Amino acid sequence: MLLNSIWFWLLGFLFVGYALLDGFDLGVGIIHLFTRDPEQRELHFNAVKPVWDGNEVWLITAGAGMFAAFPVVYAAVFSGFYLAFLLLLACLIFRAVSIEFVAKVESAKWRNFWDWSFGISSLVISLLVGVAFGNVLRGIPVSQDGYSTVTFLSLLNPYSLLIGLMVVAMFVMHGAAWMAPKSDGLMQARFRLWTLGGWGGFLLFYGIASMLTYAFHRDLMLKAYSRPMVWVFLALLLLAALSLPLWIRLRKDATAFGASALIIGAASGLAGLGLYPVLLPSTTAHDYSLTIQNASSSHLTLQTMLIIVLIGMPFVLGYTIVVHYIFRGKVEAKGETLY
Q: Under a CB-based contact definition with an 8 Å cutoff, are residues 288 and 297 in contact?
């Protein structure tokens, strides 16, 4: 049971790591979609290009960890969300190619195509991630043998779409907060405004989602609030959410980015407390829900994989820290290669 619990929270850590790292890349991409200033667009690409691929490693690691530790959940999720994940994969590919290809040809049409690809794919990825998370929270049809019968259209239910919009706003906040200390002058002021706009959108959607969760999925909240750790996460969430506009006003951009990261981590922790020990709730019957007990690999597999993770995880963390340290500081739009 202890190993199962460790893997539940370890997977949560990996998914939160992806949200924190690739979340600001995606947020920059969404902002890119609504930006017409060529210099600012170049700034977006120059900031994201050195780090985007390393950030996505966290998603791959989380998926591999789920496959190793909870293969039944992996099978149910990837079969039920098959079309959604194909769309997600296509957008991930287009986004990656757009970052690498935008400067390859000196053509306005070429640049315009990859600009739109970068922005639209970032928006769709963020929305799909949120929709997938929303469906995990509300539950999907899971049969007694662990087979998911959910359809693509049923995934696009109002509750999950609301969570999707919340994640979009959250990533916009996070991406803008990341760009503010990397820019100067007018563009820095724009990113501060985007941070506040994303922050306001997140609070709005989070508040509505909380009320709907209490109304229709009350067991999640009751389970979370029955655990002492909920007050820690709740305090951190309130502290970060209330302080972020203050840091923006004081022009403490790095601290504002830290507050944005804390919002993501604390909100995710609250969701984890509401789910645990369930990994995938079943709307067919409560007993059919996939939990850390009935959907896990063998004890030996969990033990062996944990040893591998404990050896490999420091390298992933070290690589992430080193890359972001090397590419810290201001980013310039030189106007030489893109526009």
A: no
Single out the residue of 220, 213, 218 nearest to residue 275, CA to CA. 220
Structure tokens at 63: 């998926």
Name beta bridge partners: 258: none
Q: What is the pLDDT of residue 334?
A: 64
- Angstrom distance (rounded) from CA 87 to CA 198: 25
For helices 38-48 and 2-33, what crossing angle results, to 10°?
160
Interval 249-254 mean pLDDT: 95
Burial 149-180 (b: 16+ CB within 10 A, else e): ebeeeebeeebbebbbbbbbbbbbbbbbbbbb
CA-based torsion, 70, 73, 79, 81: positive or negative = negative
Q: Are 202 and 166 in contact (CB under 8 A)?
A: yes
Measured CA to CA, the distance from residue 178 to residue 28 in angstroms comes to 9
Task: Give tens-digit pLDDT for 26-52.
Answer: 999 999 999 988 899 999 999 999 999
What are the CA-CA distances from residue 82 to residues 18, 68, 90, 129, 244 (Å)? 20, 19, 12, 13, 37
- Please say whether the beta carbons of 156 and 185 come within 8 A: no
Calculate the dihedral angle through the C-alpha atoms of 21, 27, 28, 29, rounding to the nearest 10 degrees: 110
Contact (Cβ atoms closer than 8 angstroms) between residue 142 and residue 294: no
β-sheet bridge partners, residue 291: 278
Report the SS3 class of residue 339.
coil
For the segment 185-195, the average pLDDT, to the nearest whole number, is 95
Q: Residue type for 28, please?
A: V
pLDDT higher than threshold 60 for residue 338: no
Model pLDDT, residue 337: 46
What's the predicted TM-score (pTM) here?
0.94
Query: Mean of the pLDDT values across residues 263-282?
Result: 95
